[in-house]
Every structure is written in C-alpha cells, then in structure tokens.
Specification:
By secondary structure, the protein is of the alpha+beta class. The chain is built from eight helices and 15 strands. The strands form four sheets. Strands 3, 4, 5, 6, 7, 8, 9 and 10 form an eight-stranded mixed beta sheet that branches. A three-stranded antiparallel beta sheet has the order 13-15-14, sandwiched between helices. A two-stranded antiparallel sheet has the order 1-2. β3, α3 and β4 form a beta-alpha-beta unit. The chain is globular, with a radius of gyration of 17 Å. The mean pLDDT is about 95. Pfam families: Inositol_P. Keywords: Cell inner membrane, Cell membrane, Hydrolase, Magnesium, Membrane, Metal-binding. It is found in: Cell inner membrane.
C-alpha cells in the first residue's frame, strides 16, 4: 500500500508544482482558510489512485470534507491532505507538502509526505522504519533510512511559520538552552524524523489530515506525538472539543520522549 501512496503523492506533487510555476489565484473556504486549484486537482489525482489501490478503505480528504463529503469510517481509513501549507504555497516559500496516511485502530501506521519544490519524499511504516529519498520527476533516488536524534544539551525547536499563537510563544519562552527555527507544513515532522530537529509544539488548531502522515513517519523513526497528559495523538475523532470532526487538540511532537520529562511537559502547557 505504501508504494501506491508514494506514487499518488508524486503525481499530485508534480501537478502542484506545475500550477506553482504557471501562476494561480486563491479563494477562501467557509472556515476562512485559503484554497487554490492546486489543492483541488491534487486531491482528485490522489483519490483516483486510492480508488484503484484500496477501493474498500474509506478516505477522508480535506477538500472533500470542505464540500461536505464525509464517508463513514471504521477502524481502518485513509487521511489525505493534498496540499499541506497552502499559505506557504501562496506566499511561494516552497514549504508545502502532499500528505497521505493510513489509520488503523486510531493510530497512523503508514505515511507518505512529498515536498514538490525540494524534491524530497519521506515515508514511514511504524515498526518497520522511516525513509527519505530525492526525487526527479517521478524517479526516486536511493532510499536513506532516517532516525531521530537522542536528546542533547541544546534543544532544536521548530515552530509554525504561519500559525503561531501567544500560547505557543509562552511555551517557547520556558525552554531553556534552545534554538528556534520557523518552518511550514508537515515538513516539521520530517525534520524531527531525520535528526535535524528535536521538538515541535503545536498549540494552534490542526486537523487530522494535517498531522497523520507526519506522525506516522516520526513514530517510525523513533519519535512520538503526544497530547496533554502524555497519551499519543489519536485519530478518527468524530466528536471534538472544537465542535467539528477530525479536529486535533494541542500536541507536542518530539524526537526523544526524554524531552517531555526534562522540561516538565507532561501536562500544564
């Protein structure tokens, strides 16, 4: 299945890159978030792939959800974000991705993330490892296994480039001996997975399709994504505090869970 996810992500990414280079206009969805033709066409490509690859597995996709299309899900379903980082896409900084993930029993087990501008493909299967490869067109280079870094003296922190609240800033101020870098989209999970960063706190709203592929890859590389209290970020949340299905609570993504105890972050964010 993950090979099919990779091909779908690559083809969607190539279409996104074409629109990125040609020029485009953005619109605003009902929830106030931006959308472009790239989001829509990429999702169509991915859904076409998945209808052949795994026709019996329900798919929750961002743009379909925005249009009111929500299939019933069970213990196994797929989450699709055809263009994660639409604001980054519009601002043309290159930090946007294609995300596809398989959810099993409430947890992401397989995930693929493709960054069209940098030509980086990341994938992970929990329990079987996480990998990165360079891409040219639809051709993959050598797969390199990724592994999270162990917690060291200086904490390398990633914070959202386009979504950073006062609550996040207050948490960042508590982190002694840390350096902070702004980054966009689900690439933050990938940087943790490949050992280039240690910590990504997220106090602002996200949806399950924003995080599932990144969580699968990070966990496959030895990291974790936890909510307040220490439990892993779970999926298939049809009823949430935010009042809409598939909304996430605040979470902390870490390369090494020792970070949580070192900074006293199990609760009270």
């Amino acid at each position: 299945m993950i090979e099919g996810f990779k091909l779908a992500a690559l083809e969607a990414g190539q279409r996104i890159l074409g629109i990125y280079e040609e020029g485009f206009q953005s619109e605003t969805k009902g929830d106030g978030s931006p959308v472009t033709i790239a989001d829509q066409q990429a999702e169509e490509i991915i859904l076409n792939h998945l209808s052949t690859l795994c026709p019996d597995v329900p798919v929750i996709a961002e743009e379909a959800m925005a249009a009111g299309i929500m299939p019933e899900i069970g213990s196994r379903f797929i989450l699709v974000d055809p263009l994660d980082g639409t604001r980054e896409f519009i601002s043309r900084n290159g930090e946007f991705t294609v995300n596809i993930a398989l959810i099993e029993n409430g947890m992401p087990t397989k995930g693929v993330i493709f960054a069209p501008v940098t030509g980086e493909l990341f994938w992970g299967h929990v329990g079987q490892g996480a990998y990165r490869a360079e891409v040219k067109g639809l051709e993959l280079g050598e797969a390199v296994e990724m592994s999270c870094s162990a917690f060291a003296e200086e904490l390398r922190v990633l914070a959202s480039r386009s979504h950073r609240s006062e609550r996040t800033n207050a948490l960042l101020e508590k982190l002694e001996n840390s350096s902070i870098v702004a980054a966009g989209s689900s690439l933050k999970f990938c940087r943790l997975a490949e050992g280039k960063a240690d910590f990504y706190p997220r106090m602002e709203p996200t949806m399950e399709w924003d995080t599932a592929a990144g969580q699968a890859i990070l966990c496959a590389a030895g990291g974790a994504v936890i909510v307040e209290g220490g439990a892993p970020l779970a999926y298939g949340k049809l009823k949430t505090l935010q009042g809409k299905p598939f909304a996430n609570p605040c979470f902390l993504a870490v390369a090494d869970e020792k970070i949580i105890s070192h900074y006293g972050l199990r609760s009270g964010w």
